[in-house]
Amino acid sequence: MQDFLDQDIKFLPGVGPKRAELLNRELNIYTFRDLLYYFPYKYVDRTRFYTIREISPDFPMVQIRGTFVNFSMAGKGNSRRLIGLFSDGTGVLEVVWFRGLKWITQSIKPGKEYVLFGKPTLFAGKLNLVHPEIEDSAVRENQVNTALQAFYSTTEKLKENFLSSRAILKLLNSLIRLASGKITETLPLWLVEKYRLMPLYDALVQIHFPENADQLARARYRLKFEELFYIQLNILLQKNLRSKRKNGFVFSSVGEFFNTFYHRHLPFELTGAQKRVLKEIRKDLGSGFQMNRLLQGDVGSGKTLVALMSMLLAIDNGYQACLMAPTEILANQHYKTLCRFLGDMPVNIELLTGSTKPAVRKRIHQNLRNGTLHILVGTHALIEESVQFSNLGLVIIDEQHRFGVAQRARLWEKNIQPPHVLVMTATPIPRTLAMTLYGDLDISVIDEFPPGRLPVKTIHLRDSARLRLFGFLKKEIEKGRQVFVVYPLISESEKMDYKDLEDGYESFVRAFPPPRYSVACIHGRMKSEEKEETMQYFARGQIHILIATTVIEVGMDVPNASVMVIESAERFGLSQLHQLRGRVGRGSEQSYCILVTRDDLAEDALKRIEIMTRTSNGFEIAEEDLRLRGPGDLEGTRQSGIPFELKIADLAQDGKLLQYVRDIALEILKEDPLLDQPRHQLLKAGIRAQNKNRAYWGGIS
Ligand code: ADP
Ligand code: MG
Questions:
Q1: Of 494, 643, 681, 692, which has the highest C-beta tally within 10 A?
Q2: Ligand 1 midpoint to CA 422 (Å)
Q3: CB–CB of 482/541 below 8 Å?
Q4: Of 99, 100, 105, whose CA–CA distance to 72 is shortest?
Q5: Are strands 62-74 and 113-118 parallel, antiparallel or unpaired?
């Protein structure tokens, strides 16, 4: 009877076409199911009744039972109001309405018993309830029994159209009643029993109308369990399906290119972590299965080199490879780095970005198709329709969290036989998020830095101590070092932010005047040639201080820059601070990251700064970030988009449960890898239902 829940929301009594349209637009609620799975954001205890005598204005929400003694109008114009005297036998209070007066006078009857719920206030020395919720005592008896009243997020638009939290609760009240007996369990009975879960219908009732806190907790557990379980089962099933296909290109040999590079061009010894990761990758490439691997490694840990050597393996086996970066600057940088590493090796490598000239573009397209081009580096331009490879064998995505799952999927479609895929990310991802975002990928970690690196010293400096900063920078510049100064930029269009940047630039020029010092500015509004030129000057050491927006977050590799000053550091998120800090500490000198903040910091900002000064471990920072801000806000997940929306589970809080259900999913799949057994058919249906809303999920694997 699943079609019951699929019914259009406009058919629910009390909704109708107009409200349905609002629910569609404002809350994405289209069907009965959508409403049923629109969960409350908080609950308020409605078991307790207060007497008017005991109430004082400092109480939060109170609930009282009594009758209206009389009504009167007061005030004029804007302060015109209706006042009802409400008595419960222990005292009297005033109930005040400024709006909807007509409706109140017509429908509220003096002498009849009502339950009021609202926040007491004091006005002209008298206790007031302004616009409380009002319920007919008798009607209340008739409702789904609840001790905790649910509250739902709504919007101004909805409230204007009488769709308050309270109204949504009413709709749910009728929906729950209608749904009785019509909701089928979405988890197999054996699973529900084995893990002592609350049955689905009960859980849905309790989540909206909890009988008590305990039942609510059980309902939440059941719904979170199911949500996370299906995500994990889905991911892991996809992985199984993929490995069953055994249709990966086989890179069986380590050949000329790889060996020549390794023995003759590699300017240093690989770190142990790089060796280990390369071994993992080689094993995948030779296995006959398509590789889907996530390579995590902090900024500066040497991922680019691993990428290059993997691509050489592809070329050795007669395949093309591409490396895709999130920004043009980064693509450029990768291209140059790779060219430098390759030196005079006969590898054909090209760069393709949005600003590639048509003639060059044409040549690239040609050489891609005729197979003479070995490596293509670029931005999103690589996934354009017109870009056709002759035999793409390996795709490397330097994701830095900015590359969407959907975009990744498009690369898969470039070949009938899917290329091997390596996703590199510099922002370490908390484990829970990795399991969810990349749960179908195998994971490699570079957890070691190239030798000779001194950890960056991180210092917190308040605005009032700014003079000390200038003194310190002068000393560093005397030593021949260079400095980054970064200003926050919330969005490219925000004038305010540019003003900060410009003012900052001017004050630095005043403190560091030419000709002795050279200060330059770089930001996203500049033409890319201008940006490029400025970067070049800086890279050649002709600029002492580079004032920038976060455009330098990725892609700048200037080992001689030893100081990163972050202005208004309180406005940055943790992982962004970490990324920025990664721009220094690339040389052999001691480097510094100076976090300049306003003098008075809010608690959470102070916490972030403290974490930054305490640790430089990217994983630890990522975990803290998740804990402080929740996954919805986690940098990058917003841009790259979690491929699904979590309705109830919370990756920051439910890490244990996530691991638990992943293990359960693994256990089921171990016994029945493709869920073919009859007792697993419901699970398969559950996954299908989940995938219906995520068209591109299948493409990922
Ligand atoms: P990531 O891409 O992980 O941020 P990079 O690949 O840019 O790191 O490497 C950072 C720097 O370290 C580069 O200048 C690179 O040439 C250098 N590097 C990489 N691997 C090693 C190594 N094994 N020994 C010494 N230096 C290395
Ligand atoms: Mg890099």
A1: 643
A2: 18
A3: yes
A4: 105
A5: antiparallel
In the numeric block, the tokens 């970490």 are attached to: 578
DSSP code per residue over 14-56:
TTHHHHHHHHHHHH---BHHHHHT---SEEEE-S----GGG--
Contact 209, 150 (CB under 8 A): yes
301 CA distance to ligand 2 middle (Å): 8
- Which residue's CA is the nearest one to ligand 1's atom 20? 302
Alpha helices in 124-188 (DSSP H): 137-141, 156-160, 165-179
What number of H helices and E strands is found in the chain? 27, 22
Query: If DSSP codes are grouped into helix, strand and coil, which group holds residue 577?
Result: helix
Distance 450 CA to ligand 1 centre (A): 7
**Close Cβ partners of 515 (under 8 Å, ≥ 6 residues apart):** none
Residue whose CA lies nearest to ligand 1 atom number 15 = 302
Rounded (5°) CA angle 241-245-247: 140
In angstroms, the CA 390 to CA 313 distance is 17
Residue 552: closest CA among 526, 593, 523, 572: 523
CA distances from 446 to 420, 450, 576, 581, 618 (A): 20, 10, 20, 18, 11
* Residue given tokens 């101004």 in the structure block: 156
User: Measured between alpha carbons, how far is residue 7 from residues 10, 20, 179 in Å?
Assistant: 8, 12, 11
From the CA of 699, how far away is ligand 1's center (Å)?
32
pTM: 0.67
214-238 CB burial, b ≥16 within 10 A, e <16: ebbebbbbbbbbbbbbbbbbbbbbb
268 CA: nearest ligand 1 atom? 24
CA–CA separation, 508 and 545 (whole Å): 8
Q: Find tokens 């609202």 and name the residue.
A: 118
Q: What is the pLDDT of residues 96-141, one digit of tens each?
A: 998 888 888 888 999 899 999 999 998 888 889 999 988 888 777 6
Query: What gap in Å lies between CA 629 and CA 143, rounded to an integer?
Result: 37
* Ligand 2 midpoint to CA 353 (Å): 18
pLDDT of residue 84: 94
For 135, residues 6+ apart whose C-beta sits below 8 A from its C-beta are: 114, 115, 117
Query: Which parts of the chain register pLDDT below 70?
Result: 1-2, 141-145, 244-246, 400-416, 437, 490-497, 552-556, 629-645, 693-701
Instruction: State which residues have CB under 5 angstroms from ligand 2, the bound ion.
Output: 304
Distance (Å, whole) CA 236 – CA 406: 19
pLDDT tens digits, one per residue of 420-439: 989 898 777 777 777 776 77
Q: What tokens were used for 490?
A: 């919330």
Amino acid identity of residue 210, one-letter, is: P
Element (H, E) at 114: strand 113-118
Helix (H) or strand (E) holding 544: none
- Of 694, 672, 693, 696, nearest to 684 (Cα)? 672
Please say whether the beta carbons of 701 and 248 come within 8 A.
no
Dist. CA 240–CA 234, nearest whole Å: 10
Q: How far apart are CA 683 and CA 233, in angstroms?
A: 9
CA distance 238 to 232: 10
Ordered structural domains, the chain, with CATH: 47-145 (2.40.50.140), 256-446 (3.40.50.300), 477-615 (3.40.50.300)
